[in-house]
Write a structure and sequence with these properties.
Layout: E1 2-3, E2 10-11, H1 27-62, H2 90-93, E3 98-106, E4 113-116, E5 119-124, E6 136-137, E7 150-157, E8 160-165, E9 172-174, E10 186-188, E11 193-196, E12 199-207
Parallel strand pairs: 5-6
Antiparallel strand pairs: 1-2, 3-4, 3-12, 5-7, 7-8, 8-10, 9-11, 11-12
């Protein structure tokens, strides 16, 4: 298109005179008009490209350098602190400072001894049906079966020795006193006499040196 310099009418290329006002069209004007935008676009593009090129190094320069994590210093690895020792089991804490035993003195194998353990000691007779063996098995000392299979319970806890009838048929007696009430522990001391059925036993307590 050729723009008329007189009236501003845009004419088709190749015309010598303006269709709007009839003025002489200048070819230079048309070339300048076409060239101007191109130059403008070129000039506009150049600064943009230059700015983009300059911006990239600037961004790279502004970005902080990422430091490589330093390796942990080599050194001896300390073991975790040992956990405090657990409290001793109650059974061990309550261990008696002595040894105790029952000795048959009448009505059975005289002189037969039965060591007593810390904790519970069942006194009775071997049970063939269940295969249970009491700690103090008087089966061989009781031919008339006067002793119940689960007759009494002797317990050693700390510095005490107690005996408790656990529902026997013929009862439990200490130092020939009245029959013990079932389920009621009675404290014993060294030399006490215990009667179970027709078997007489003596408690012997020896301190641990």
């Amino acid at each position: 298109m050729i723009k008329c310099s007189e009236c501003g009418y845009e004419n088709m290329d190749g015309l010598d005179y303006c269709d709007g006002c009839g003025a002489k069209l200048s070819p230079a004007a048309s070339e300048g008009a076409g060239a101007a935008p191109a130059a403008s676009e070129a000039s506009a593009g150049a600064p943009a490209a230059t700015a983009a090129a300059e911006a990239k190094p600037a961004e790279e320069a502004a970005a902080p350098a990422v430091e490589k994590p330093s390796e942990a210093p080599t050194g001896e690895i300390k073991a975790p602190a040992a956990a405090p020792a657990e409290a001793a089991p109650a059974a061990e804490a309550a261990a008696a400072p002595f040894k105790a035993k029952l000795s048959v003195i009448r009505g059975g194998r005289k002189g037969q001894e039965f060591p007593l353990e810390t904790g519970n000691n069942l006194v009775g007779r071997w049970d063939p049906e269940t295969g249970a063996f009491p700690e103090v098995d008087l089966d061989a000392d009781d031919p008339e079966a006067k002793i119940s299979r689960k007759h009494a319970l002797i317990r050693i806890d700390g510095g005490k020795v107690t005996i408790e009838d656990i529902g026997s048929l013929n009862g439990t007696f200490v130092n020939r006193q009245p029959r013990l009430a079932p389920g009621t522990p009675v404290e014993l001391k060294s030399g006490d006499e215990i009667i179970i059925g027709k078997t007489f036993l003596k408690l012997v307590v020896d301190p641990i040196s």
